[in-house]
Amino acid sequence: MNKRYNAADIFICTILLLSCIITILPVWHVFSVSFSGPDAVYHTSLMLYPKELTLQAYKYVFSTPTLIRAFGITVIITVAGTLINLLFTISGAYALSKRDLPGLNMFMVFLVLVMTFHAGIVPGYLNIKNLGLLNSLWAMMLPGAVNAFYLILMRNFFMDLPKEIEESAKIDGCNELSLIVKIVIPLSTPVIATIGLFYGVGHWNEFFKGVFYMSDSSKWPLQVLLKTIVFDQNFSDLASADTTNIRIEPANIQSAAIVFATVPILLVYPFLQKYFVKGIVMGAVKG
């Protein structure tokens, strides 16, 4: 039977289509500019497809040791930071999933308070300074090692796991550590992958911590350097000698740098997409 579309359905579909266009169009424009020649960029305000196709902007970007270094720093922060996040989040969520945990209600109240109130930028900066973490990669990873909301999501997921499996494992001689590694984590792949993706994207896009805690430009993460490239018209100190004489519009370099900073994290999504909805829904069902 064919479904009849009423006025409300048509209106909703139209709004969603317009939203998709508004969202995708700027991204596509940046992508097109990054592959276009300087003359085409100079004379065109909106680029719907690459004109005067060229890779000069990407050649310029990949010849910049500063940008490559920032990319490496961001990769380290993303990988190591996500592992730290997952280590503490899994440990805390597993402990809080036990209903017989002493002080469980108090811990849950603390988590809600953390989600509601924040100390602020200045106390956070003073804390990092007093710990001696300024201009250290640890300053980008340790603050916010556990997100209270993600902890609660994972805790709810753990509470949905069959208790019989845990009891059988303990009868077979599993201790708590073996139980987590061999039973809980393999059964919790959807929620771990989803929350790991959230943590990873957060680290990859981290900007404010780099601005606040990294005064040494040689330790800037990619997003901080990207801000400098986008708002600074002088790129002569970034490129190698053999590319400084190439005519490139600043918009070419800015667009290529944005694509360079965006594509790696986008490539992660297809591998984790199958876990995404399942992990969020199952972790949000039970309180």
TrEMBL record:
Chain ranges of the ABC transmembrane type-1 domain: 71-272
InterPro entries assigned to the protein according to its UniProt record, in alphabetical order: MetI-like, MetI-like_sf
Stored PROSITE patterns: ABC_TM1 (PS50928), PROKAR_LIPOPROTEIN (PS51257)
Recorded topology in the membrane: Multi-pass membrane protein
Lineage of origin: Bacteria, Bacillati, Bacillota, Bacilli, Bacillales
Domain of life where this protein originates: Bacteria
Similarity comment text for this entry: Belongs to the binding-protein-dependent transport system permease family.
PANTHER family per the UniProt record, alphabetical: ABC TRANSPORTER PERMEASE PROTEIN MG189-RELATED-RELATED, POLYGALACTURONAN_RHAMNOGALACTURONAN TRANSPORT SYSTEM PERMEASE PROTEIN YTCP
Protein name from the UniProt record: Carbohydrate ABC transporter permease
Localization per Swiss-Prot or TrEMBL: Cell membrane
Cross-referenced Pfam families: BPD_transp_1 (PF00528)
Keywords from the named record: Cell membrane, Membrane, Transmembrane, Transmembrane helix, Transport
Annotated transmembrane regions: 7-28, 70-95, 107-126, 138-158, 179-201, 253-272
Source organism per UniProt: Paenibacillus baimaensis
